[in-house]
Structures are given as structure tokens and as C-alpha cells.
User: What shape does this take?
Amino acid sequence: MLIFYMKIVEDIVQTNIDTIEKQTQLTGSLEEFSPAYLRQVRGGDFEPLWDELVQRYHYLGHKRLLGKRLKYLAFIEDYPIAALSWSAPAKRLGARDRY
Assistant: This one.
């Protein structure tokens, strides 16, 4: 499973993104698809894919996340449908600490 994406490294991410866009358009009702699943990608082969998808589709683009963080890709039938991330809050932040 996910053999197509396991080959992703930084020098071929762009090619794979273009292939994904041309070949995949998931249409239909949700009941027609396999259940969605998450894959943690931080530090792995899928992280460049996460970075490129966020750079391309997020309205702010990709910014380097600071501190401790989690990155996940959500898939349906081996196709990425969402890029998610969580970052630890700043240890000290004056305005928040005064509140």
C-alpha cells in the first residue's frame, strides 16, 4: 500500500504533485469511498509531500514550523486529501501570559 508515495523524495515531489492533480479527482458520496486514515509524516519520506501540498494550497503557503510539532497526511484510497499539523505553544508569550 502507498507504494507510489513511498518513492517520494525532495527531488521528485513536484512531479508527483502534478501527477496527483492530473489523475485524482475524488467525486461521489462519502459512502462510496474507503474510510479515511491518517499517516504521521514528520521526519519521514512523506514530509516533502506535506510541505509541497501546504505550499501549494494553503492561503499563507508553507512556513517552517518552530518547536515541537506533528504533521499528518489524511488519505482516502491512497490519495492525500488533507495536510494537518499541530505545534506546541510558545513557552513564553507576554500578551498571553498577562491575560
Notes: The beta strands are 37-40, 69-76, 79-87.
